[in-house]
Every structure is written in structure tokens, then in C-alpha cells.
Amino acid sequence: MLETGWDILFFWVARMVLLGIKLTGQMPFKEVFCHAMVRDAHGRKMSKSLGNVIDPVDVIEGITLDRLQEKLKEGNFDEREIVKAQAGQKKDFPKGIPQCGTDALRFALCAYTSGGRDINLEILRVEGYRKFCNKLWNATKFAMLKLDEGFVPEPSAKPTGQETIVEKWILHKLDVAAADTNKALEERNFMAATTAVYNFWLYELCDVFIEAMKPMTDESASAAVKKSAQNTLYTCLDLGLKLLHPFMPFVTEELWQRLPRRPDDSTKSIMISSYPVKDSAFENSAADRDFDKVFTIIKQSRSLAAQYNVQSNIQIFVSSTSTEEADMITTQTPTISSLIKGCKSVVVTADVPEGCGSVVLSPTLTVHLLVKNLNRAWLT
Fold first, then answer.
1. CATH of the domain at 238
2. How far is the first Cα of the chain from the last one, in angstroms, to the nearest whole number?
3. What percent of the chain is predicted at pLDDT more than 70?
């Protein structure tokens, strides 16, 4: 495959094809991937006279506005062009360009790439991915604290069958992310690939599972529950970092090197490890449906608490006309409680106390928030 730009297809690529066929009798390449043209945040073509040219090194290492403007004077520009360019720089980068790092820039450019369309490069978005790198670092650091000293993962990543619903759910989401990422890479759809792995890390692993597993790894949890949660967490970190590696090679290598290894795994670098693919052992549509129901309860409980301005001692009651549904939710009350800030209790019951604010989630399921002791004047 040849990677190039749309603007030189005729000048270079067509001639390479013609000469290749003429001299060797065969095509020099079977596929041409045309990347987008990178423009500034306003959609303008980058031009030195406009002062909107962004040096990748400046994004990686960071640069002050004063230094940006000094670099203009180092070129062979007319004084009037320098003044115009400096005005443009001052408008676009009033505080200079913050240090974003190589991984954040690489991820941003991949995330921007869609169907060869032009990229309007916004530094704030690159900076956002730098914060995502920090999120990865902090999440992995916190997760490592949940793995006991001397922790050795199971020889295989395959589920044991003893996992809780939230564990089955996160492994299912990991499988979906792996399938979506591989499909997108095969189609050269880098925006979809980055979206799949980004959403898994940020919205499913960090925001949900790492928080939900806290009760499963505290002192009150049984040894079997704790071990299962630790192995599930390890699998998500190991395969999640591998999924992300092509887009963020440096931070993923650093974090992966800090993880313990499975027995008989002597892989020295994440760069030469096997890339995750869809695994039917992780697929669990039933757990996905069940936990989506649990997460809906969590979101609606948060919404009720915000609506009534209840910030502490939150008491949630869940009622269901389905015995099977009620039994499933009862097993997940610790997870629900851990994912609602300020939650005191979650009770699944048909006998809901008076003085509750309620929201109906389905014909069989309702969530209630106890508001009886709140300021009645405020409620009216």
C-alpha cells in the first residue's frame, strides 16, 4: 500500500504506476491510501504568510507565543508579512501551544481522518487527547493498586464462568471494541477505530467497571469474588492497552511494561504482542442486556438526585413486577450504590415508602428516590 496525498496523485502516483508497469510489467502497489490535507482550525490552508503553519514538534513539545513569533523572524519574510502573521498567531494561540506529546498528536490525527476529507486541526482537541493519556496513566496506576502484591494472572484470558454480571459486561464490551477496531482498520477507517478504543477505555472501563469493581476488591469481598474481579481487570488492561497501542505507542508500552505477565508469557514488548481480535468466549449478549438495565437504573437515580438536589444520604428503591428482573437487580445493588455518588442504600422492594420521587423505566421497572425529609417549600 502507498500512502500519499490527493494533491500529488497525477504528479507522482500516476507516473509511478506507468513507470512500474513499463519497467517491471507489474503494478508497484495494489492500494493507495490518500490522507486528508491538514488545515488550520478555521479551515484555511496553512500558509507561512498567515502565520497559521503548525509545526508538529511545537505541538509535541509545546511552545510559547513569544517563541512562535520569534520563529517567524528567522524566515525570509517581508516585514509586512511578519506583522500579519504575528497577528494571526496571537489570535489563534494567545497562550502559545501547550505541550501535548507525540501520542496525543498521533491519536488526534487518526481521529480526524475520515474519508480523505480535509482536517481542520484544533489544538484544543489535541490537548484533550493529552488529558486522555493522563486518564490512561491514572486509571492504570489505580487499577494496579487493586492487584495484590505478587498477583499472577490466570494462564488464559478466557472467562471462568464465575464472573459477576458487570465482569461479563465489560468483557463483552472489550470484545465489541476489538471487533469494531479490527473492522475499522481493515477498512482504513481510522476515525472509527480510534472512536471504538477511546469509548471502551473512557466510558466503559474507567467510568463504569473500575468504579463498579471497588466493592468486589475491598476487605468484605470473598476471596473468590476478589480474584475473579482482579483477573477481569487485568484482562481489560492487557488487551485494552494492546488495542490502543497503534495509536498511542509510547504511553501504552510504558504502562504495559508495568503489568504482571501471565505464566509462560515471555513477550518482551507490547509492539510484538498479538493484536486483540474478536473472541466468542467474551461475547455475552445476555449480560450486556442485563447490565444496560442496571446502568439505566444508575443514570436515572443520578438524574432524580440532581432533580431534587439530594447530594448525600441518597436512598434508592427499585420496584419490579418481574421476579426474575428483581432478583437480577438485587445481586447488583452494591454496583448500583458504588456508581451513585452520595448513595446510602439501594433496596429492591415492592413496598416502596411514601414520599418518593419516581421515574418509570419500563412497564415492569420503576426507580424511586426518598425525598420525604427534604425542604417541602423547595419541592413546591
1. 1.10.730.10
2. 67
3. 96
